[in-house]
UniProtKB/TrEMBL annotation:
Residues 31-250 form the Bacterial bifunctional deaminase-reductase C-terminal domain. Pathway: Cofactor biosynthesis; riboflavin biosynthesis. The keyword Hydrolase does not apply. Keywords: NADP, Oxidoreductase, Riboflavin biosynthesis. This is 2,5-diamino-6-ribosylamino-4(3H)-pyrimidinone 5'-phosphate reductase. Its EC number is 1.1.1.302. One of its GO terms (biological process) is riboflavin biosynthetic process. It comes from Tulasnella calospora MUT 4182.
């Protein structure tokens, strides 16, 4: 597939995410899922201990914000929420009279470590952002839940794995679909990206991800960085869809495949 001009991120995204931008109906048991992240030339996406790395250039960051307008929800893990204090909005896009669609901020946080004084809650309280949703374990502390709900956070309990304590991704996606989220953009951090890359549906045996868009920055990080996959995890097989260049960065779009 020939990529549109590098200066037109919106057209590029529509060409590689046509299943999201078209009227196609998502699966009944989960949303359409787009997994996206930036990495260095040596495959690092973050620093050790969850330290944030600024890898994307201005042009590819603009593309990411366009991508947010195309999805109803945007999901990160609690590590990213605590370390980066993200806003998960479309603030980098050009000013226009008609407001851009804003995705629902969704946080995976099994033990409710989410802070009520973060930017997501502040933006919602001031009318500059959508209500953040925090997905937690069904066994999470009721007092923490009440405190966050009083601050304006929507709490959504889901099943967790009794061995690992991590939230069950099948249940996460099923509940989000039941709550009306038909398209989901997964942005990070490392544990969340790794989990989605290696996860297969318990009912279908297929990947829970529909599209993968990776920004490759022309830089090396070295031993102080961590990659997209946890040690020992096997990613889904992928097929190349399209590639382009935005500013200094290379953008690669793929889709999981069974062969």
């Amino acid at each position: 597939m020939a990529a549109p001009a590098a200066s037109d991120p919106e057209s590029f995204l529509k060409s590689v995410l046509n299943h999201v931008s078209s009227p196609a109906e998502p699966p009944q048991n989960r949303p359409f899922v787009t997994l996206t992240y930036a990495q260095s030339l040596d495959g690092k996406i973050a620093g050790k201990g969850g330290k944030q790395l600024i890898l994307s250039g201005n042009e590819s960051m603009l593309m990411t914000h366009w991508m947010r307008t195309m999805h109803e929800g945007i999901l990160v893990g609690i590590g990213t929420a605590l370390n980066d204090d993200p806003q998960l909005n479309t603030r980098r896009l050009p000013v226009r009279a008609e407001p851009y669609p804003q995705p629902i901020p969704i946080i995976l946080d099994s033990q409710l470590r989410f802070r009520s004084n973060c930017k997501l809650v502040g933006n919602y309280g001031s009318g500059n952002g959508r209500q953040p949703w925090v997905l937690c374990s069904e066994e999470a502390d009721p007092k923490k839940r009440e405190s966050l709900e009083n601050a304006g956070v929507k709490i959504v309990p889901v099943k967790s794995n009794p061995q690992t304590g991590k939230l069950d991704l099948d249940d996460v996606l099923s509940i989000l679909r039941k709550l009306g989220v038909k398209s989901l953009m997964v942005e990070g951090g490392q544990q969340v990206i790794s989990s989605f890359l290696s996860h297969k549906s318990s009912s279908t045996g297929k990947s829970a991800v529909d599209s993968i868009i990776v920004t490759v920055a022309p830089t090396y990080v070295g031993n102080e960085g961590v990659g997209a996959l946890d040690e020992g995890q096997l990613p889904a097989k992928v097929a190349h869809v399209s590639s382009t260049v935005m500013g200094r960065d290379s953008i690669v779009a793929c889709r999981p495949t069974e062969s």
